[in-house]
Amino acid sequence: MSAIMHPLDQLDPLAEYRDQFFLPPGKVYFDGNSLGLLCRSAEQAVLETLHDWKTLAIEGWTDGEADWFHLTERIAAQLSRLTQAPADSITLTGSTTLHLHQVLATLYRRDDSRPHILIDSSAFPTDRYGVASFLRNLGRDPAEHLLEVATDDAGLLREADILEGFRQGVQLAILPSVVFTTGQLLDLAMVTAGAAECDVRLCWDCSHSVGVVPLNLSELQPDAAIWCTYKYLNGGPGSVAALYLHPRWHALRPGLAGWFGADKSRQFRMEPELVPAAGAGRLQLGTPHVLSLSALRGALQVIEAAGVDRLRRKSLQLTGYLRDQFRGRLAEAGFVWATPEADDRRGGHLALRHQRARSLSLALRARGFVPDFREPDLLRMAPSPLYSRFADCDDLVAAIGQILADPPDLPGLSATLVT
Ligand SMILES: Cc1ncc(COP(=O)(O)O)c(C=O)c1O
Q: Which of 111, 229, 327, 399 is 20–30 Å from 61 (CA)?
């Protein structure tokens, strides 16, 4: 690693944020698209909650500062500022998978003459499993009613194919804003408008965009959106996910109901019939996961301070730089680009295919680099605009070059890496 600071790091307006993160000792981290790192304000927020639990016990739910009872709404307000959505159209109650089920149960109409649900062939498995099980529970065969938009020869989704898919007896679609494998960013405006034109209810899975790609939900106006908070939002392992429900659906009864979806002013009347909260809060289920939400509350302060537009700018600069380093130094190494070239077509990570991606990823880990591998041959790298440096990109590419030139003794690595 060079002792001289990389000129781009010297110029980086977000450089100060790196010190706010706990960088795993001896590691160069490129996996923030799977699990973002812990920051000081998240740690502090959890410690405060532990202190409140110690000292206030049950009164933490209602006591002024702690106010766990309204914690979900306070975090929804933070997320609404990040996504330009009305605060009462966002809630948090469980995992992204659970939110998917909530969206399906709330927005799908049994009596619609168009029974199909559309996903894409590169969907994250949970999206496919969730939709299939939902259909089965309705007595509908997924083989018939779960439609998939296929990717093209380059492994990318084409918006025109999605729009065509909307016309195939589809009433509801679950689609990724950024595809988790390739990092392809879809044209959200075009697809959302196309769905509205066909009266298809659309839910974006924004797990790979919120926190690194600006999202204006008020402008976009999808029917729903769901996203993980442990990736680019750094909320911690398994942190509670987010759910957006467009205001036009705020009067719908929740498909899945629980007592925390009640109008908070009367929740403790414990009435036999649910009187739902006014906005997306009605989609909450059980008692909020306060410790997890606390970490997220703290982590979001950093994202808000840095600003998503600035994060996007640096993220694009980092991924662009990393791509150029690959092109310049590893042109003959047998990598195939999975991520689209254009800035407005890629999310926060870069993906490359290589015959021995698995072994390469193991060899990198042995050297302290933490990229991410997805079967069968995908190497994903997500330099975080909050804590990665341009120098880290140089070091990663140099390490790959060294591994290729002098393959370590890992199963399957030496024979083919050099080809
Ligand atoms: C696009 C996408 N959706 C959903 C999930 C997972 O959801 P959950 O938090 O419920 O495991 C992931 C996890 O990586 C994801 O990438």
A: 229
Measure 270 CA to ligand 1 centroid, in angstroms. Answer: 33
Q: How far is the CA of 412 from the centre of ligand 1 (A)?
A: 30
Query: Can you read off the two tokens belonging to residue 250?
Result: 């705020």
Q: Which residues face 350 on adjacent strands?
A: 381
Could you give the CA distance from residue 270 to residue 280 in angstroms, rounded to a whole number?
A: 20
Alpha helices by DSSP H, listed for 84-208, are 96-107, 125-137, 142-145, 159-166, 188-197
- Tell me what pLDDT residue 410 has: 60
CA dist 46 to 49, 96, 343, Å? 5, 22, 36
CATH topology for 45-305 is Aspartate Aminotransferase; domain 2 (3.40.640)
Q: What is the pLDDT of residues 183-219, one digit of tens each?
A: 999 999 999 999 999 999 999 999 999 999 999 999 9
CA dihedral over 229, 235, 238, 244, signed as positive or negative: negative
Catalytic positions, written as ranges:
124, 205, 230-231, 380
| Cα gap 349→360, rounded to integer Å | 18
Ligand 1 residue neighbourhood (C-beta within 6 Å): 95-97, 124, 126, 176, 180, 205, 207-208, 228, 241
Average the pLDDT over 298-302 and give the result: 98
Predicted pLDDT at 413: 54
CATH of 7-30+307-417, one of 3.90.550.10, 3.90.1150.10, 1.10.1370.40, 3.40.190.10: 3.90.1150.10
What lies within 8 Å, CB to CB, of 82 at 6+ separation is 210, 211, 215, 300, 303, 304, 308
**Cα torsion 167, 169, 175, 181: sign:** negative
Mean pLDDT of 407-411: 69
Mean pLDDT score across all residues of the chain: 95
Digit-coded pLDDT (tens) for 31-65: 999 999 999 999 999 999 999 999 999 999 998 78
Q: Which of 119, 124, 232, 374 to mutate to test the pocket of ligand 1 (most atoms within 8 A of CB)?
A: 124
Q: Report residue 161 CA to chain centroid gap.
A: 23
